[in-house]
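Example for tutorial group B:
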């Protein structure tokens, strides 16, 4: 089974794809979709959301995942940023749904708990455990790609299937 994990954003969308073969997890690839604000510094969200959709369609075609795990949003400080990320997450969900992928919502605390046993673990603890469970030689970069791999790996646990 191929699982694509997605860490939503509107400037950077992290993605990471794994495949589970006979209880072994193999990393197929990871990276980020990057969008840029307009030349004047004013953001055109329509263009950025369209770019996310186009790039995500290429990723879906490349990996052909059976399941897509998308991190749920958690924000408490900057509502404006949260709304933009929510818009990007909506585009991600619709794009994956239309591509025929099974969708799974994953909470940030579920990822932290699955990897470290502590729902409030810091990013360093999470990435160190990610390297161990995926048997990687280095920490995936940028952070958004590492987060997406962690999201994908978390869905391999029975309680999230």
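The residue assignment follows.
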């Amino acid at each position: 089974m191929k699982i694509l994990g997605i860490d939503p954003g509107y400037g950077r969308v992290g993605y990471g794809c794994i495949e589970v073969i006979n209880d072994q997890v193999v990393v197929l690839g990871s990276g980020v979709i990057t969008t840029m604000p307009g030349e004047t510094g004013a953001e055109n969200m329509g263009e950025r959301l369209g770019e996310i959709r186009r790039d995500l369609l290429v990723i879906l075609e490349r990996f052909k995942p059976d399941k897509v795990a998308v991190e749920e949003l958690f924000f408490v400080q900057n509502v404006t940023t949260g709304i933009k990320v929510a818009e990007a997450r909506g585009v991600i969900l619709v794009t994956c749904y239309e591509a025929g992928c099974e969708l799974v919502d994953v909470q940030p605390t579920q990822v932290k708990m699955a990897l470290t046993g502590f729902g409030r673990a810091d990013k360093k603890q999470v990435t160190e455990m990610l390297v161990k469970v995926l048997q990687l030689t280095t920490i995936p970069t940028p952070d958004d790609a590492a987060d997406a791999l962690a999201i994908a790996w978390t869905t391999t646990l029975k309680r999230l299937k």
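Helices lie at 45-63, 79-98, 108-116, 123-133, 143-154. Compare this with the pattern of hydrophobic and polar residues in the output above.
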